[in-house]
Amino acid sequence: MTFPQFFDVHAHVNDVRFDDDRNAVLERMQDRSVWAIMIGTDRKTSQSVAMMASFGDAHGVYAAIGVHPIDNPEERFMTEFFDELALTKRVVAVGECGLDYSRLPATLDVLAEKTRQKELFLAQIDFAVKHNLPLMIHCRDSDKAIADAHRDVLAILRDKKTSTPALSGNIHFFSQTIDIAREYFALGFTISFTGVITFSREYDEVVRLSPLDRIMSETDCPYVPPIPYRGKRNEPIYVEEVVKKIAEIRGEDFETVRAALVQNAFRTLNIPLPD
């Protein structure tokens, strides 16, 4: 396979919104030289992305398997089930996993819910260590100014890094400050940006000040399409707009940024370079 022009490190082409034209979406990726990581959020979707990846040689498709912190609170991380998936060809990460305090219902025991999420996250960290895979982390705070979820994720990662220095991964859809980003960088983690940066100026500082070798591009499709595709279903080929905006915000040469982001994806996710 030839080297990709773009790398979407977080996509959900297994989503039902692609059921009518999934193959066409994959063909467009191939035509535009876009590779992508398809993301699992529970057992069912992890199985589907692992299957997509196992047949994804022609389209540059890889998979991350795991359990989302809040999509289905009843979902458990079944280690034996995921052990088998981890052996599937082109599974390259564990996730999306992490902590999400942004939608804690008032009817819940908040402490018990946070404990549930932390235990689920810790199980997936241990699984990632066992299989020598990086993490694809989902993290949302109850309030950006408080950064409560990110503080808890950082504390967990710092503790785990003491016994497993090689632990690594990416904070997807990064939505915090440059100061929080730098704490992740100090732990050897990367962050990735979505199409939100094309229509919101809120993240310009973190895009501009982050080291180029610590950032990546993603779509999180079918969600948050970038300008000029607002109002449409997002898809991996639109990651080009994210890369363009990153270069623009940083005031750097597009080709330099494009190539660096692709290299960062290969390095962070331990993907063998194509011949």
Short description:
With 275 residues, the protein is α/β, with parallel strands linked by helices. The protein has helices at residues 22-32, 43-54, 79-86, 110-131, 148-163, 178-186, 204-209, 239-250, 254-268, and strands at residues 6-11, 34-39, 61-65, 91-100, 135-140, 169-171, 190-193, 215-217. The chain has one domain: Alpha-Beta Barrel (TIM Barrel).
Observed structural traits:
275 residues, alpha/beta, TIM Barrel
- Main-sheet strand order equals 1-2-3-4-5-6-7-8
Q: What's the CATH class, please?
A: Alpha Beta
How many helices? The count is 9
Gyration radius from CA atoms, angstroms: 17 Å
How far do the termini sit from each other?
7 Å
* Average residue-wise pLDDT: 96
Report the biggest beta sheet as strand number plus sense, adding barrel if it closes.
Answer: 8 strands, parallel
Q: Count all strands and give the number.
A: 8
**Share of helix among residues?**
40-55%
Number of domains: 1
Shape: globular
Query: What name does the CATH topology carry?
Result: TIM Barrel
CATH superfamily: Metal-dependent hydrolases
Question: Helix and strand succession?
Answer: EHEHEHEHEHEHEHEHH
Tell me the structural class.
alpha/beta
Proportion in β-strands: 15-25%
